[in-house]
Give the backbone structure.
Amino acid sequence: MKWKAAKEAFLLGKFYEQLQHLYACDEAECERQAQRFAQALDSFASLFGEEREVAVFSAPGRTEVGGNHTDHQRGHVLAASVNLDILGVVSKNGTDKIRIKSQGYPQDEVDLNDLSMHPAEQNSSRALVRGIAAKFQELGAKLEGFDVYMTSQVLSGSGLSSSAAFEVLVGNIFNALFYDRKAAPMQIAQIGQYAENVYFGKPSGLLDQAASSIGGFVAIDFKDKAHPDAQQVRFDFSKSGYALCVLDTHASHADLTPDYAAIPEEMRSVAAYFGKEVLSEVAEETFYAAIPELRRAVGDRPVLRAMHFYAEDRRAKEEADALNGDHFARFLQLVRESGNSSFMFLQNIYSAAHYEQQAVSVALGLCAHFAGHLPDPNAMAWRVHGGGFAGTVQAFVPERYVSAFANEMDAYLGEGSCHILRVRPVGGMQIVK
């Protein structure tokens, strides 16, 4: 579709139903999103020219719902895509170069004649694009150059994984333009993970990319390292009567790398006691029978973290079952149990080395305080979100209380700290062809 025709289609409401489905939004929000798409099309035209055939793609951020620190032990996770996304306006440019301009960042360029790893590019978006291109070329895709303008709603540093959304967006572009859409959502996620691990230089798991690529609530079993099993959970969150809130604690991640690294290391030390690589390879009853010896061999904290793994791994599966069965009250109970386990056993709420910073603990306490004043305190659920120690807290809040909740959290934590989200029912996709 031509640039101008695409812009007019958004402004005239021709994509209204798609936007309503994509963002689980009301009419006013759909209008705002239509304006956002139109502005992105204008920005593309001003950068790369007006007389262009364009395609438009979108990829969402994600939230971890259950399975806190279970993925690296090849356990189970429940995640969900959210209604904050990166969108991209794309057009082939007739060259052998990819030019990417992300709003607020310098333009990047990748030459398709050189898809080798560039060590100097590590930790850059160019590295991700080059890695994704290399993998699609390896699969047999006939690549061409293209121009893309991107704009993002995914909050940086929020634990919603803007990097995975970027990878999924780029993967969908290659898949649609050069691979006849043959790559399934999980394969696109794996390609993004490959680029992040090998080219970008970050040894991440597959959780973020899978949730962004598949969309909705996604239950993932990481037992098979090469081929994780991901299933979309059939639950319409928009009809639950709840909002998903993410609280920014504004705590610094600086100097926390040893804390993050210690969690998988200590869990693996327990697994190594039994001659295994990860805890999912050790039967729970075998672990509990050996606790006296384990405490002497590896210490108490690794034992406690292993306790968390077994309960949390089981809980993530139960959360998916509760949603599939439309048992939302049971789901909320499991979310609360997950938060308590992370605090008591996993111990990723604050750093023992930096105990003076306990912003996540404060946010969790504020959630408990708010819930305690509701007619039914169990109507709410809250937990640490993602890696922990700093960052964000997740809360499921009844819609009738969400305005009061947001106002109270902003008053305590700072204006704009409470982000009210919805679960997006679909993952990465092409909107305009």
